[in-house]
């Protein structure tokens, strides 16, 4: 089953294996490229084992507590380090409160992306328990722990409960889950927690998928921070005046916007139009100055250069906030209050909600991206294809009509001032048309 799941990090609960488990881990993993840390069973507490693929990850034990075990994992082919904590919380409420303190202490030992997983032996809401009616103290304490630790409790796909008891599942609850830190959420645009099929245990396995899947071609969208770039407005004006098209005014406008889009696509690949390139360039220059300072004192011009680079980095940070606010569509939150991380999380959440990784058509589940696209296109083609040729006939002779004054007012052409006021009333971050240009442009 581990091979079918294709996971390179696994956390096992209640293994009920004592002694040296090295050979058992390799046998379960299916190869010798497995390393692990464990929390041994004690009394009513089940064992927790975290296993990872050694060819991809460099792992190290961080802490072992009474109810949890934590390890650090560093990707060998990327600059990415994170911590994973496996939890087996007791069934007793008072002892479970000790678990929350233990996890808080473990978090104090490291920083950065963090994932908690395991059996928490409680739920957050009555809806996570079959026939649940009211919120109890255990639920409140669990929710308080998640909020105090600034963790994210992501949605569960593929099922409502993770633990079921009895042949008819008369008792069921969501006792198991993944909890993610904000740093983890920021690193991945696509995150999904799913319930897998259970075989022997009364607990269902959970799968956490992170990364990019079902990649699609990105479409053009005007970045509002470009307007704050020095010389940008003059550059756009020069491009616009260089385009020569003849015809109706609406055609000329459309043709010029299309030509300008091509210029902007080329420009955003340069350092002036790309925030990632700008940030990397500034950080490299600052690192070079730091290295020089290790060997000698900086000269006046170098000190001035470092100050200028620091100010430039602040400008880049402001532009990043503008960019992420635009992507997040959180227009109610004021720009300029250093809300970049919130905008980032909101944009990622929108992307996850809008993604379709599976589709059921006529009882058949489809997972291939191309097949999903094909079925969606065919569905809307059928929906908007007219099959009836008949049209109802209406006799308007006996219907009330507007008088001549109101009719002339409704049919009067729009004035330039009215059009300008309507445009200015639109949200600047919105791009109402398919061309990708925002209203502020």
From TrEMBL:
Signal peptide range equals: none
Q: Which domain of life is it from?
A: Eukaryota
Pfam families listed in its UniProt record: Exo_endo_phos
Residues in Endonuclease/exonuclease/phosphatase domain copies: 2-203
Q: Which Gene3D superfamilies match?
A: Endonuclease/exonuclease/phosphatase (3.60.10.10)
* InterPro entries registered for this protein in UniProt: AP_endonuclease_F1_BS, Endo/exonu/phosph_ase_sf, Endo/exonuclease/phosphatase
Its BP terms in the Gene Ontology are: DNA repair
Q: PROSITE patterns of this UniProt entry?
A: AP_NUCLEASE_F1_1 (PS00726)
Q: Which GO molecular function annotations are given, in alphabetical order?
A: DNA binding; endonuclease activity
Q: What is this protein called?
A: Endonuclease/exonuclease/phosphatase domain-containing protein
Q: What phylogenetic lineage does the species belong to?
A: Eukaryota, Viridiplantae, Streptophyta, Embryophyta, Tracheophyta
């Amino acid at each position: 089953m581990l091979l079918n799941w294709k996971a390179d990090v696994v956390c096992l609960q209640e293994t009920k294996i004592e002694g040296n488990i090295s050979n058992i881990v390799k046998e379960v993993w299916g190869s010798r490229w497995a390393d692990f840390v464990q929390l041994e069973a004690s009394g009513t507490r089940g064992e927790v084992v975290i296993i990872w693929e050694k060819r991809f990850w460099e792992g190290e034990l961080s802490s072992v507590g009474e109810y949890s075990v934590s390890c650090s994992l560093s990707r060998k082919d990327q600059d990415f380090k994170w911590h994973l904590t496996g939890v087996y919380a007791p069934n007793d409420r008072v002892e479970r409160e000790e678990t929350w303190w233990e996890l808080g202490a473990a978090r104090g030992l490291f920083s950065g992306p963090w994932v908690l997983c395991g059996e928490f032996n409680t739920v957050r809401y009555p809806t996570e328990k079959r026939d649940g009616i009211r919120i109890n103290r255990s639920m409140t304490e669990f929710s308080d722990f998640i909020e105090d630790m600034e963790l994210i409790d992501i949605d569960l796909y593929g099922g409502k409960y993770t633990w079921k008891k009895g042949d008819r599942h008369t008792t069921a609850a969501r006792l198991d889950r993944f909890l993610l830190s904000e740093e983890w959420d920021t690193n991945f645009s696509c995150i999904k927690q799913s319930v897998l099929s259970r075989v022997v245990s009364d607990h269902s396995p959970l799968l956490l998928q992170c990364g990019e899947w079902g990649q699609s071609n990105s479409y053009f969208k005007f970045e509002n921070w470009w307007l704050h770039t020095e010389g940008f407005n003059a550059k756009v004006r020069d491009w616009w005046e260089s385009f020569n098209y003849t015809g109706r005014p609406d055609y000329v406008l459309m043709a010029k916007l299309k030509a300008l889009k091509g210029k902007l696509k080329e420009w955003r690949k340069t350092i002036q139009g790309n925030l990632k390139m700008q940030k990397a360039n500034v950080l490299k220059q600052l690192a070079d100055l730091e290295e020089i300072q290790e060997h000698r004192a900086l000269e006046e011009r170098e000190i001035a250069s470092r100050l200028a680079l620091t100010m430039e980095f602040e400008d880049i940070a402001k532009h990043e906030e503008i960019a992420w606010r635009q992507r997040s569509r959180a227009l109610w939150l004021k720009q300029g209050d250093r809300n970049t991380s919130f905008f980032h999380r909101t944009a990622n959440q929108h992307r996850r909600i809008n993604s379709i990784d599976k589709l059921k058509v006529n009882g058949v589940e489809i997972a291939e991206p191309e097949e999903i696209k094909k079925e969606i296109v065919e569905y809307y083609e059928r929906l908007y294809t007219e099959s009836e040729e008949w049209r109802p006939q209406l006799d308007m002779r006996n219907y009330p009509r507007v008088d001549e004054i109101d009719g002339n007012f409704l049919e009067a052409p729009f004035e330039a001032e009215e059009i300008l006021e309507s445009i200015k009333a639109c949200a600047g971050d919105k791009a109402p048309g398919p061309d990708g240009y925002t209203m502020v442009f």
